[in-house]
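Standup notes, structure subgroup. Blocker cleared on the molybdenum atom input:
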Amino acid sequence: MPYQKSDAMGLPPGQHEVSEFPRFGLPRFARRIPNLRTSPEIKVTSEVGRSTTISLEELTCLPRREQEADFHCVTTWTVRRLRWSGYALRDFIHLITERIGPFDELSWVGLRGLDGYVASLPVEFATDPDVLLADRLFGEPLDLSHGAPLRVLAPSHYGYKSVKHLAEIHLLRSRPRGSPGWKEHPVALVAKEERTQHIPGWLVRWLFRPFASPLAWYYRRNTSL
Ligand SMILES: Nc1nc2c(c(=O)[nH]1)N[C@H]1C(S)=C(S)[C@@H](COP(=O)(O)O)O[C@H]1N2
Ligand SMILES: [Mo]
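Run returned:
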């Protein structure tokens, strides 16, 4: 974690603490609650090598990682001290490299959820040790609100990189187009207030903050779990 420690005193710039962890996201995904009856697996597709599918069962060969971290949404809310458990994305990438690699020109890791939501990280950030494929929150299996059965957790980055209901990992040479569109900063480090790519973070704070509560309400209203 190069820029921010989860046990840091105080909050990152422009964030305020909320006591409840809301179900949240882009408005158009609020009603897309995935059907989990299909067999849980992650598709690995690649521009720079072969493709494969890994079942969640197969993930259990990787070392389990426990991690406490704060979660920061770009609309300025932060929930503190969430306790996650899962597998390091870097261990997962190592596993698939052994199976179908090497991926010589790998530069970007695209992440797609069962609801169709897409975000990405440059490979050097995606393989940071604190980036997890999380399947538990406070010791319980993830529920549908927070990304069941498996989600990405990239706690040094704004929440929009932490793709819920992970269905596909796409190994790429160049940056894919993500669901947040122009709002997605390529890296989105919270400590550097990289909220969006082209507008300064301190300004985006004020533009996005008014949407946080109505959006949380809209998400709650459309969550029938
Ligand atoms: N699949 C999927 N993942 C997603 C989103 C989404 O709409 N769909 N929204 C992102 C955003 S903007 C945030 S802040 C977090 C919210 O996670 P939560 O619902 O567990 O609070 O999920 C991120 N990952
Ligand atoms: Mo967000």
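Discussed briefly. The helical segments are 56-59, 89-100, 123-126, 201-221.
Next: hand off to the docking folks.
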